[in-house]
Amino acid sequence: MDIKAIVYTSNTGYTAEYAKILADKTSLPLYTLKESKSIEKGTPVIYMGWLMAGSVKDYNKAVKRFDIRMVIGSCLGTTGSMTDSVRKAHKIPSEIPVFTLWGGFDMNKLHGIYKLMMKIVGKAIKNKILKNPTQTEEEKKIVDMLDHGGSAVDEKYLEPIIQLLQ
Questions:
Q1: Tens place of pLDDT per residue across the chain (166 aa)
Q2: What is the rounded distance in angstroms from the CA atom of residue 117 to the CA atom of residue 119?
Q3: Which domains does the chain have, with CATH numbers?
Q4: Strand partners, 71
Q5: Whole-prediction pTM value?
Q6: 162 near 22, Cβ under 8 Å?
Q7: What phi and psi, each to the nearest 5 degrees, are found at residue 58?
């Protein structure tokens, strides 16, 4: 893959953490979407963003500027849990790798409409999990994150991506 940079959007910092780890591991230059104006239009990049309602935030802005060769979204769900919905939401061709990584959640870092939305959506997610008598450890951690905030960011979730880039 002839990728020249990593471009990302982060809201509460979890996508930024993953982007920094990936940049360190690959030696690719790292830019926020706002900083990326200095990158030539059409440059091949990895685009990373946080997931909201099954889509990667600001993907549509990034795809207008760059040749996106890989899409990575961080989410409240477990790693790999939403790749199909991301691909479908953005009509990403099958040859473009799509990854979703378990990020984290912190209600105190959310503002405005995002905070209001997550109060509603978070409650629904939590209730759905709690109704299940056989909750997984991951589901229990999601409930804990919704109640208390927390991070699941872990370098190990980037390993398949790093291997693909080598």
A1: 799 999 999 999 999 999 999 999 999 999 999 999 999 999 999 999 999 888 999 999 999 999 999 999 999 888 888 999 999 999 999 999 999 999 999 999 888 888 888 999 989 999 999 999 999 999 999 999 999 999 999 999 999 999 999 8
A2: 5
A3: 5-105+151-165 (3.40.50.360)
A4: 47, 98
A5: 0.91
A6: yes
A7: 65, 15
